[in-house]
Design a protein that fits this description.
By secondary structure, the chain is of the alpha/beta class. The chain folds into two domains: about 40 residues; about 100 residues, no CATH class. Helix content is about 45%, strand content about 15%. It starts with a helix and ends with a strand.
C-alpha cells in the first residue's frame, strides 16, 4: 500500500514540476525563438560584433585591437575618462567589451603587469613606458602598443 502511495505522489510531483517548468519557461522559449529568427542568418563575424554595435561602440576598433593582440597577452586599457551612460563610464565599457572580444588575452589593472596597452582616445606616450612596437588606427586616436612579448 505504501509503495502505491509513494508512486502516486511521485507521479503527481512530476506532473506539477513539468507544468511549472512549462508555465514559467514558456516566455523564455518564445524569446529564444524570436532571437533565433533574428540572429540565425548572421555571419560569424556579425554575431561576434552584434553586442558591440548594440551599445553603440565601433566594432572596427575592437577588430583593430584583435588583429594585433596575441594569445597570452596581458592587456592594459588606456581609455579617455568620459561618461558612457547611466551605468558605465567609457573606460568601464571598453574594458568590459575588450575582455570578451579579445579572448584569450586577459585584462590586467596595473600597467606593470601588461604586455600590451590598448589606447582609446588617449595618447599612450603619456604613460612614460617604452614600447617595442606601436600601431595606430589610421588617423584615429586608437593605439596598440606592445611593451614586451608575452
Amino acid at each position: 500500500m505504501r509503495s502505491k502511495a509513494q508512486a502516486a505522489f511521485a507521479v503527481a510531483a512530476t506532473a506539477v514540476a513539468r507544468y511549472s517548468a512549462w508555465h514559467s519557461g514558456h516566455h523564455v522559449w518564445r524569446r529564444l525563438d524570436a532571437d533565433y529568427r533574428t540572429y540565425h542568418a548572421y555571419t560569424p563575424s556579425q554575431r561576434q560584433e552584434a553586442f558591440i554595435t548594440g551599445l553603440p561602440l565601433p566594432a572596427s576598433v575592437f577588430d583593430f585591437y584583435a588583429d594585433r593582440v596575441r594569445r597570452g597577452d596581458r592587456v592594459y586599457f588606456n581609455v579617455m575618462e568620459s561618461g558612457f551612460g547611466s551605468f558605465f563610464s567609457l573606460p568601464e565599457i571598453v574594458a568590459a567589451v575588450g575582455r570578451f572580444y579579445l579572448l584569450p588575452a586577459v585584462q590586467v589593472t596595473r600597467l606593470r603587469d601588461a604586455t600590451v596597452v590598448l589606447s582609446w582616445f588617449k595618447d599612450p606616450s603619456q604613460l612614460d613606458v617604452h614600447f617595442v612596437t606601436q600601431a595606430e588606427a589610421g588617423l584615429q586616436p586608437f593605439y596598440v602598443s606592445h611593451i614586451r612579448a608575452p
